[in-house]
Give the backbone structure.
Amino acid sequence: MAAARRGGLTALAAVIAASAASLALPRTAAAHGAPGAPPPTDPWSIATAWVVEPFVIAGILATGALYLLAVRRVDREHPEHPWPRHRTAFLLIGLAGIVAALLSPIDSLADDLASVHMVQHSLLTFVAAPFLVASGVVTLVLRVASHGQRERWILPFLHSRIVRAVTFPLVGWLGFMAVQWGTHWSGLYNAALLDGGIHVFEHTLFFGVAILFWIPIFSPDPSPWRMGHPARLIYLLAQMPSMSFLGVTILNATTVLYPAYLGRSIAFGLDPLADQQLSGAIMWGVGDGVFILAMGLVIWDWMKRDAVETVRVDARLARDDSERAAIDARADVLAAAKATGSAKAGSAEATNAARPAGSAAAAEASAALSTGSAAGGSTP
């Protein structure tokens, strides 16, 4: 059992790392902007323009399979505390977001349309990343691991300085804003359209900082930087204007910001500038929508936890009242018993006090009779 546990844990950790690294591995398809087949423009060719990326496919399938295997083991070994089903659903949704972004026709169209490219980045940033964070992979690893593995390897890593540093909320918050602005207002975005390797690096950057950004909000895993609900709301609200302003800036641009798109959108009947403005609108709308939704979920979780806490406090107060009533009832019984005992003692003392007085009176009466008798006997 111990050997099987070690093997399962090692495989799970390895494949999780492999699936994350698969975003950074060389891609087999044509590089963005490289000569190749003409872009799909009719509905059928678009619907069938799926991308075959062996490393990405293998990473996604292996991660999902081993996650489910670990869940099955936890459920089997701890039937009284099974793995929450909603976390498994979160993992599958997160993996589906990666599939949609990197393997579906979205990836093929992102080569030629800035608007679709923005959808691709939104899937990685606002779907795949938060759902994978919410799936609780670290907690699952901790539950699958043995006590020795947790103490020797996992907990020291989680408590290491580098993990504490990169998971500090301000790091993810600043990194998210810096990557969004840095990629869209530098030569990196346009270079990614011309070079497949740079584009993979860009995807890895977007996905990585998104993971760090969403950890303080949705992660159920243990963390030294757990934020309360008010802090989470401020965290999200403070990021929202930056995303909105960036989207509005792209939307209102009067020139094409990324020359690599020139001439590509014509095949779809779209002017490059109009396509770029559509991408800005998507960033603005999707970004604001996701942040508002996230704040709503934080408020809902806050209210739910407050309701649970209220029930717990009410139950504790009711229990305290019951215990206090029992103590008061016992005190009343003891007081009544004490009063009864005092009354009996007083009655006994009164009886005992009355008895000597009665005896004295009887003695005096007897003495008087005796005196009288003696006097009568001496009379002639």
Notes: Residues 2-31+47-318 form one domain.
